[in-house]
Write a structure and sequence with these properties.
heterodimer, A: 191 residues, mainly alpha, B: mainly alpha, 13 helices, 0% strand
Chain lengths: 191, 228
């Protein structure tokens, strides 16, 4: 689980009403942005590039930020960036042929054990395949809550939706996920 | 709501399998190396944009100049190509000679043609520039007497030069300042020349006097250069 009081929250508390610098935003929200990009459908190989794109936009537009709901503002930038990226990827796949396939996320967490890395890669691939069958809205909420460890309140804040909507989406996404797991035959392998 | 990954002891096999799968995928956390790398790239992009900023006016000014010159060159040609020439011809005010109001359009196409091509005027050349889509609209756009000229043109196409000359003479008589005056004069001197009529020279001179820079100047000069 992600720590509940993230560095971003600390910075926001300290800078109530005053303007934020790019350094502060970058230092405190770097990992959040990378996670959102994964939840929004960014492929592992492109997470770095997409994170860079998001922060380039942030730097350009930070002076115009109204100071309210920084997390929501950053999330919307990430959402638009990933949407554009997916459109470009679709164009490349359809008109130019080929395309990148999901590899694995270069995760800083427990990358020491080769067996663990292999198992995680396999699990990521399987999860990606299952979640690809869900609608984008459900998938994003599901990953943010179930994989990235955000709370319902945090998701509601960043997505700008009521908390009950988050729970409804999660409820349906979870049901669908369990159904997909059952259909994939994965359930039989669990003792 | 408890995260699904914590339901590892759920009695439902599918929920347990899903929980086990989710438990194997940790939250994404990019390494400090990646963080530094991305930061360096962001700074590099910023520096590159900053260093190229002074080039923007340097690029913009020549581009604007090129676009401006191109527009000034192509624009009038396009305008003349789209709008029929007859639309420029207005009836001159009372007492004013017709040639003063004649269009001062050069004849680059005719002038550039080969000497052989200059000898005769094709019926297509005699048609007003860029006729409108339908014959009815064309007749209307060419003003009164256009049907007379169409008939003359058809007669010229059919090789009946005498009839063509007769009809153009009738047109000039009825509409001395008509929109198709230039075409009427051109058909008359060209028809006369085709019949080796001595009036061809006079008619060509009349054409050049009225339209010193007309579209059929080359043909008129040809007739004057080779009188029968």
């Amino acid at each position: 689980m992600v720590q509940r009081l993230s560095p971003l929250d600390v910075v926001l508390e300290q800078h109530q009403g005053s303007s934020l610098s790019f350094e502060q935003v970058y230092a405190t929200s770097f990992n959040d942005v990378a996670r959102w990009i994964r939840a929004l459908g960014g492929l592992p190989a492109d997470v770095e590039d997409l994170t860079q794109e998001v922060f380039l936009v942030v730097r350009r537009k930070l002076s115009g930020f109204d100071g309210r709901n920084l997390r929501g503002w950053l999330y919307r930038i990430a959402q638009r960036t990933v949407r554009d990226y997916r459109r470009r990827a679709w164009f490349r796949r359809v008109f130019l042929g080929g395309g990148s396939t999901p590899d694995h996320y270069d995760n800083a967490v427990s990358d020491n054990n080769p067996g663990e890395i292999y198992e995680r890669k396999e699990a990521e691939g399987l999860l990606h395949g299952l979640l690809a069958q869900m609608s984008e809205v459900r998938r994003t909420t599901f990953i943010l809550f179930e994989v990235e460890g955000y709370s319902g309140e945090e998701i509601a804040e960043m997505q700008g939706i009521p908390l009950n909507t988050v729970w409804t989406r999660l409820h349906h996404a979870r049901k669908e996920f369990v159904r997909l797991v059952a259909e994939s035959g994965r359930a039989g392998s669990v003792q | 709501m408890r995260p699904l990954r914590e339901h590892l002891d759920d009695p439902d096999l599918a929920i347990r399998a899903g929980a086990a799968l989710l438990a194997k995928v940790p939250p994404l956390e990019l390494s400090s190396t990646q963080r530094r790398r991305i930061r360096a790239r962001i700074d590099a992009v910023g520096a590159e944009r900053h260093s190229l900023g002074w080039l923007r006016p340097a690029f913009a000014v020549p581009v604007l100049l090129i676009v401006g010159v191109a527009s000034a060159t192509v624009g009038p040609r396009l305008y003349h190509a789209v709008v029929p020439q007859s639309a420029f011809e207005q009836a001159p005010p009372r007492g004013q000679p017709a040639h003063l109001t004649a269009p001062q359009t050069p004849a680059p196409v005719v002038a550039a043609a080969s000497p052989a091509a200059r000898d005769t005027i094709t019926p297509e050349q005699l048609e007003p520039e860029k006729p409108t889509a339908t014959p009815a609209a064309h007749v209307e756009a060419s003003g009164p007497g256009a049907s007379l000229m169409m008939e003359a043109l058809q007669a010229r196409r059919a090789g009946d030069t005498a009839r063509a000359q007769e009809l153009t003479a009738e047109y000039q008589k009825k509409y001395p300042n008509g929109a198709l005056k230039e075409e009427a004069l051109a058909i008359s001197f060209e028809s006369a020349a085709a019949r080796n009529d001595s009036s061809a020279v006079r008619l060509a001179q009349k054409y050049l006097a009225a339209f010193p820079h007309g579209r059929f100047r080359a043909q008129a000069e040809q007739v004057l250069a080779n009188p029968h």
